[in-house]
Amino acid sequence: MMLIAGLGYLGEALADRLHESGEEVAGLTLSPESAAALDAAKPFPVFACDISSADDIRTLKSRISGPQSVIHCASSGRGGADVYRAVYLEGARNLLEILEPGKLLFTSSTSVYAQRGGETVTEDSPAAPDRDTGRILRETEDLVLAGGGIVARLAGIYGPERSVILKKFLAGEAVIEDDGARHLNQVHRDDIVSAVILLLNSPEAPGHVYNVCDDAPLTQKECYAFLAGHFEKPLPPSGPRDLNRKRGWTDKCISNAKLKGLGWKTCYSSFKDAILRDAALVPSITRQL
């Protein structure tokens, strides 16, 4: 059985895909109300569970058969360091030590790379974040790797119903920071799903970190220039850089070469490609305005 800890934007899509492929799946969500609604709507069981609570995980263990794989993709929401520590670090510790799964895959973030010079970054590059939230992600990664698990460092997630960049542009709220040279590393939700499934099935993956991002990082100015041309709208105005990002201000180009070495292929090679080819993306964001 595969247990998805966190049936949010990514986790729900991942659980659906796994179930459709014939896997036995169960899902976890924090809210009892969300769990009840999802359990009624999905063809697989969904349980309310606070993964930061050892007691909750012990109760869960008594209700399910031992999972072969656990995917920890729970979200911190808008929480700060305390929430990060509870959801990510303590959540991973509880899932590992109490459920004792055959594999644990943790979806971390490429924000752990603090590089600011626009350089290409691989899994061997220094990952020394300068914010508490990033340091907690690194601590969680080390815990998962020490337990023989897999770490997937995700770039900025977008897809149908979710794209901060596209929504800000269409709403007229986008700003090009400084000269717009900062790189935007992104990845479509559907490509994350395929990457996670590949990693779970790869005998080479346990004990390793993999960057999950698209093939062509864009500078902020390149991205907005494309959107301006595509939608026939003006280029956003310039403004100062936002130094108050929760995970810090960085500029780097994330490499996905290691993951591609396992045979992974992106469905959407870049954000521009998805704008042109994902028929659900633009209409789903437009409806939110």
Which structural class is indicated by helix and strand composition? alpha/beta
Number of helices: 11
SSE series: EHEHEHEHEEHEEHEEEHEEHEEHHH
**Helical fraction:** 25-40%
Mean pLDDT: 96
Using DSSP, what is the number of strands? 15
Low-confidence stretches: none
Between the first and last Cα atoms, what is the distance in angstroms?
Answer: 40 Å
Beta fraction: 15-25%
Plain-language structure description:
- It contains eleven helices and 15 strands.
- By secondary structure, it is α/β, with parallel strands linked by helices.
- The strands form five sheets. Strands 3-2-1-4-5-7-12 form a seven-stranded parallel β-sheet, sandwiched between helices. A two-stranded parallel sheet has the order 6-15.
- α2 links the parallel β2 and β3.
- α1 (9-20) crosses α7 (189-201), α3 packs parallel to α4 and α4 packs parallel to α5 (132-146).
- The termini are far apart.
Put the structure in a nutshell.
This protein is α/β, with parallel strands linked by helices and 289 residues long. Helices cover 39% and strands 18% of the residues.
Considering the chains and any ligands shown, give keywords for the structure:
seven-stranded parallel beta sheet, alpha/beta, two-stranded parallel ribbon, 289 residues
